[in-house]
Amino acid sequence: MLRWLRNWRRSRLRRRPFPPPWHDILGRNVPLFSRLSDPDREELQRDILVFLAEKHFEGCAGLVITDEIRVTIAAQACLLLLRHKHDYFPDLVTILVYPAHYRARQRRRQDGLETEDESTRLGESWERGNVVLSWDAALSGARDMRDGHNVVLHEFAHQLDQADGAADGAPDLPRGMYGPWARILGGHFERLQADKARHRKTLIDKYGATSPAEFFAVITEAFFEKPRQMKLKHPELYEQLRAFYGQDPAEDKTRIL
């Protein structure tokens, strides 16, 4: 019954008109939106309506949440859902937004000793409930979809990864895809670790060598922001992401930046 009610409510939300001021925000802050095909633009708008109805935004460090913040972030997050079977990041409740980079404490345990330190961050994804973002980084990532870095895509890729209960670089995949995914992504992950150790130049952000979870997040950024280069240099990896996301940004002429 609860699932039926949720789907009924979402169906009603998806039929609502998309507010004209939100169109202006997308045109101003998310240039990729205008390059999508008409069906994809309509689908993205419907997903944004549901996303914004279901997720709570909270400003931090004095930031006042506006429709510009909400719509700009939602558009990038929902890009990951386009043409992809999904449930609107079901574990996510709140998006916490700082004006710019922020300081966060982190506890580490090694050899039986626990330490705590602080680091400067642009975003993070928690396994249950929250995503944290810097508004400056979210806005700059939306406006420049060619530099290979996008904090919203990165953190929401973590949400997809964590949806099955583990942040391990393997989101909920279609049947028959787990074997090739493990083989191909595992091989490229090890190669990136080797390239990082040898200080070689790489298309994929070397931060992805940190863990399989971070590797999935950074290759998601590259897939959407540097699709042609990724398809040329890492065709097997590109094909795995194309199959998972149901999108082919390297070949979709309406989206090439």
Primary descriptors:
6 strands, single chain, alpha/beta, Collagenase (Catalytic Domain), four-stranded mixed β-sheet
Structural account:
This protein is of the alpha/beta class. It has one domain (12-104, 115-245): 3-Layer(aba) Sandwich (Collagenase (Catalytic Domain)), CATH 3.40.390. Helix content is 51%, strand content 15%. It has eleven helices and six strands. It has helices spanning 2-14, 20-29, 31-35, 38-54, 67-79, 135-143, 151-162, 178-197, 212-225, 227-233, 235-245; strands at 56-59, 92-98, 102-110, 113-121, 123-125, 129-134. A four-stranded mixed sheet has the order 1-2-6-5. Strand 1, helix 5 (67-79) and strand 2 (92-98) form a beta-alpha-beta unit. The longest helix is centred in the last third of the chain and has 20 residues, at 178-197. The protein is globular. The mean pLDDT is 91.
- Under CATH at level 1, the class stands as Alpha Beta
Cα(first) to Cα(last) distance is 44 Å
The strand order across the widest sheet is 1-2-6-5
Radius of gyration, CA atoms, in whole angstroms: 18 Å
- Tell me the number of helical segments per DSSP (H or I, 4 or more residues long): 11
- Order of helices and strands, N to C? HHHHEHEEEEEHHHHHH
According to CATH, the homologous superfamily is Collagenase (Catalytic Domain)
DSSP E strands, number: 6
- Compute the number of structural domains: 1
β-strand amount? 5-15%
List strands and helices in order, with pairings.
Layout: H1 2-14, H2 20-29, H3 31-35, H4 38-54, E1 56-59, H5 67-79, E2 92-98, E3 102-110, E4 113-121, E5 123-125, E6 129-134, H6 135-143, H7 151-162, H8 178-197, H9 212-225, H10 227-233, H11 235-245
Parallel strand pairs: 1-2, 2-6
Antiparallel strand pairs: 3-4, 5-6
